[in-house]
Amino acid sequence: MTENRNYQLKEIKEMLLLQGEDASSLHREANSLTENLFGKSVFVRGIIEFSNVCAKNCAYCGIRRDNRKVKRYHMDKDYIKQIIFEAYRDGFRTIVLQSGEVDTYDHDITEVIEYVKSKCDIAITLSMGEKSREQYVEWKKAGADRYLLRIETTNKKLFKTLHPDDDYENRLKSLLTLKELGFEAGTGVMIGLPGQTAEDMANDILFFKEHDFDMLGVGPFIPHNDTPLKGHTSTAFEKVLNFVSAMRLVTYDTNIPATTSMATLERDGREMALNAGANVIMPNYTPQIYRESYKLYENKICTDEDAERTMELTRATVENAGKVLVMERGDRRARRDEQKQCAGTSVNRPGDSN
Ligand code: 5AD
Ligand code: SF4
């Protein structure tokens, strides 16, 4: 089995630049490590985009504050609870509550988490942006399990140009707070941002490894016509696959989703990612009437179908990739603990340096 070793910046950069048969061979190596760690299992998480109201103006994002063409919505807390219970009945054991960044609904979400957790055993992941430490504590106490907050790029200069409202060090501080509070913490970046280099992307992967994040959600940058980045081009899909494979090899047992933006750039993109290192799929569980209003980028897939159809297609995607859809929670920390117990008293995996 490919061991968990420390890769150098130069090696990672070389992986990202591979082409043709050399790239395919990298993807096979990452897939074989993934299958050694997880078998053919692909964990599923349902995403509920409960509000598209956002106070920020990220340069790339279709629901940024200044895009007046977006019809803004938010779901009330009883409706969110109802959707989560439906997802539970459909077999989901993880849901992701995602929204734009405003504080308005924070306490509603606390109530949703407390109520849902008192009724059923489902992992709750939040993806609601940068908040105060007190707010993260409130959600943790309510029972939230995981938090996703993408760093978007670790190139600090590029970060600044893309995020007029944000500060890189604050974003990092939020991520570290989430880890410290015991959330399973996920982060991620966009691939192919204007001005981003292979070295930047290799640094992104080293950043994931350095902070030992549990989940790594990445996808290609895809321009949106009502943003300042309209007219820029997306990257070649091979670069996205190389990035997924390099993340798998470097960060070893993290949860890596095959994301919607991958399938938007390349029709079979998620199947390809599931054969190049990804082990998670995140179907959209948002009711269809809202999906068109949560367009972060052009041509986002699944906006014209309902949750049932999305589920059928998700199953087909996983099966086409030769894998098996698994509905269980798929916690990284619990899996690690089990593996340590199975290994007896030894707590270090080969090559584990920390
Ligand atoms: N292209 C690709 N991904 C995007 N996101 C936002 N806008 C775009 C875009 N134009 C991603 C960001 C954000 C996540 C919710 O969606 O990485 O964190
Ligand atoms: Fe708002 Fe998130 Fe879009 Fe930035 S990326 S504009 S914070 S929804």
Can you offer a commentary on this structure?
The structure is a single chain. This protein is α/β, with parallel strands linked by helices and 354 residues long. The chain has one domain (9-332): Aldolase class I (TIM Barrel, Alpha-Beta Barrel), CATH 3.20.20. Helix content is 44%, strand content 12%. The protein is built from 14 helices and twelve strands. The chain has helices at residues 9-16, 20-38, 77-89, 106-119, 133-142, 156-162, 168-180, 198-211, 237-251, 260-265, 269-274, 288-291, 307-320, 332-342, and strands at residues 41-44, 46-51, 94-99, 123-127, 146-148, 184-187, 190-191, 215-216, 219-220, 257-258, 280-281, 324-326. The strands form three sheets. Strands 2-3-4-5-6-8 form a six-stranded parallel beta sheet. The chain has a four-stranded parallel beta sheet with strand order 10-11-1-12. Strand 3 (94-99), helix 4 (106-119) and strand 4 form a beta-alpha-beta unit. Helix 2 (20-38) packs across helix 9 (237-251), helix 3 (77-89) runs parallel beside helix 4 and helix 8 (198-211) packs parallel to helix 9 (237-251). The radius of gyration is 19 Å and the shape is globular. The relative contact order is 0.17. Residues 345-354 have low confidence and may be disordered. It binds 5'-deoxyadenosine and iron/sulfur cluster.
